[in-house]
Amino acid sequence: MRRIRWVGAALLGLVLAGCSGAGGTPSGETSRTTVSVSGAPSASRSPVTGSDWHAWTASYPAADGRCEATAHQVVCRTGSGGFVGRSRSTGEVTWSVPPAGRGKDAELVVDSATERAVTSSGATLSAANLRTGKAAWTHRLTYGSTVPVVLKVADGTVFVLETPTAGAKIITLAAFRMSDGEALWHRSVAADPYGDMAAFGGRVYTTDYTKVTARDARTGATVATTPQGVECSYLISGGKYLVCTGSPISAGDTFPPLQRLDPDTLRPLRTAEDTGDKPERGVISSDGVLVLYEDSAEDPGGGAWNAYDLVHPKRLWSYNTTTEEAELAGDRFVTFTPVNDAPVRGRVITIDLHAGPKAKGAAAPRMSAPYSQSRYGEGPRLVVPGGDPDHLVVQAATHRSLRSITLP
Question: Where is this chain compositionally biased, Polar residues type (predicted)?
Fold first, then answer.
């Protein structure tokens, strides 16, 4: 259950000084608030790609779960391996695929290149064809007895990290072709499913807390491991970058330092010093900016998103907030405003990746109008297609609502 994080948001107050309250902000989805050089907000209109798009909201059934997006669709998992597709322009349901199995649902991955969405239910892996809106294939997971915890997609292949029994150290890593579900290979590996997995550049990476292993994505053969002494509890990847952090599920109060790895050799590279707090979640841009959510393990409360330049190792900026939900859109970092800052809470905010929340002028942070779906109590998350989108979807879990808005 997500903890409520109470912390003063002095930084946000300084950055967004003079912002109007919720009642003074336009409620239309095409409005946004920017911060001028003087700090006073000014209203502007967001450009929208495609004349067929309009602001929309939609409720979704209790069976529906996590949603992801492509340039044209919002795809949601419906439980037991089913899918539903909606138009990103109108929010209308355009197709659905019935459940394919029974059991606890795993992740949802959507791949525009192969026009497939993949999820699992129990021991059944299933895929939907995004072009036709029909079931593409199902596959029985025979090498594990329970839920595949991690799914990753790269280069037309979906990689599945299965957990056979509780507490087992040896688990199964399997690869399936996205187009037709053909099993390509499987390997018994020493890995921690809660340490996540990375797949890019023709390789797939796993960690078992003590070392990282890289495997050839086509064959599953081991091609590199980290040198002795490199501690890696959790993997974060993005673009061509691979980073080790401490585990977000650790019960300790000390964590391995932030460490960038060479994707080819897995040797450690020079990395900026982190805050020493517990790392919870991170995203990495294509040009090597890691934005990492860190919080105190001893006295958890409000955490902060900290940005690190991986190419020229240094810490760039920090943004105090109360949510671990964030995504990337073009050259901007997208998240929600803090729950404890009454004048601006319940909004989506975007921050220039390099300039940070104190930037002025064109690089200044920009906020949306307040929405009911963006309130902290709704457990909101961001559904953002890849690339540099003009609009995104806010998914509210508590009252099960989707809202399409223009990107601030």
Answer: 27-49
Residue 140 has what pLDDT? 85
Please tell me the chain's helix, strand, coil percentages from 3-state DSSP, rounded to the nearest 5.
Answer: 5, 45, 50
In DSSP notation, 92-158 reads -EEEEE-----S-EEEEEEETTTTEEEEEETTEEEEEETTTTEEEEEEE--S-SS-EEEEEEETTEE
| CA neighbor of 237 nearest in space, from 280, 210, 199 | 199
The encoded tokens of residue 184 equal 């390509």
Phi, psi of 8 (to 5 degrees): -65, 140
Phi, psi of 384 (to 5 degrees): -125, 125
Token digits for 335?
């998240």
Closest by CA position to 306, among listed 339, 278, 268: 278
Tokens 């499913």 locate to 193
pLDDT, averaged across the chain = 85
With beta carbons less than 8 A apart as the criterion, state whether 141 and 160 touch.
Answer: yes
